[in-house]
Design brief:
Layout lengths: L12 H19 L45 E3 L4 E3 L5 E3 L6 E7 L9 E8 L3 H11 L6 E7 L2 E12 L12 E12 L5 E9 H6 L1 H9 L5
Antiparallel strand pairs: 1-2, 3-4, 4-5, 5-9, 6-7, 7-8, 8-9
Length: 224
């Protein structure tokens, strides 16, 4: 009878230990080192003393290279060839109807008035007396009240007239006399026999109400 023989595989303790160490090292070799998440950028902090830029106002465009500016009141320094003045804040700058005028201003009607008054500026020759006589003729011969003085080295003559006013077609006035009107005018003598003429006319109540602003206008006269 044949006898079966069984061969047994013998594993030494050293081989078993090496096999266990190799199996434990496999996960570390596959995973590899993990990368940290990218850092988020930190917001820039303003420097001490710095201010944030202002937004451009809607509907306004600043000149190239200039900061935006806010709209100011109608009052502002004005300047001619030989004279500077400041327009009262309550007056409104209006278009000049002719090239003879240096400036035109509208003065809002006083309470109970029916129309705005107007002050225009021209530069011309002639004596103050000759112009006063012409203005008296526009008021039906009413005598003017004169006040001569010096403002910042400039000789001025202030003229006041009240009555029925007839500007005439050459001055763009309405046909016929305008009762209860008044005029405040100032003649500022400048170089070479030339003068600046500021003439404010309108309903008497409106002209009288504008007297304080008119005096401030005269007080602002100066050489450029």
């Amino acid at each position: 009878m044949a006898t079966k023989s069984h061969s047994k595989l013998s594993i030494t303790p050293i081989a078993l230990a090496l096999a266990l160490l190799g199996a434990a090292a496999i996960p570390f070799a596959c995973d590899g080192p993990s990368e940290p998440p990218p850092a988020l950028p930190k917001p820039a902090l303003p420097r001490p003393g710095a201010t944030a830029p202002l937004a451009q106002p809607t509907g306004q465009t600043a000149p190239h290279g200039a900061a935006p500016t806010e709209r100011g009141p109608a009052a502002a320094p004005a300047e001619g060839e030989s004279l500077r003045w400041t327009v009262p804040a309550a007056w409104t700058v209006a278009p000049n109807p002719s090239t003879m005028r240096k400036a035109t201003y509208k003065i809002a009607k006083a309470a109970g008035g029916t129309e705005d008054a107007e002050c225009f500026v021209i530069m011309a020759g002639g004596t103050a007396e000759a112009n006063v006589q012409r203005w008296e003729g526009q008021f039906g011969g009413s005598k003017a009240k004169l006040d001569k003085k010096t403002v910042n080295g400039i000789e001025v003559t202030i003229v006041e007239i009240e009555g029925s006013f007839n500007a005439g077609p050459m001055m763009g006035g309405a046909a016929g006399p305008r009762p209860d009107f008044a005029m405040l005018a100032v003649i500022a003598a400048v170089a070479n026999g030339e003068s600046y003429f500021f003439k404010l006319t309108g309903e008497k109540k409106t002209v009288l109400a504008a007297r304080a602003d008119f005096d401030k206008l005269v007080g602002s006269f100066a050489r450029p």
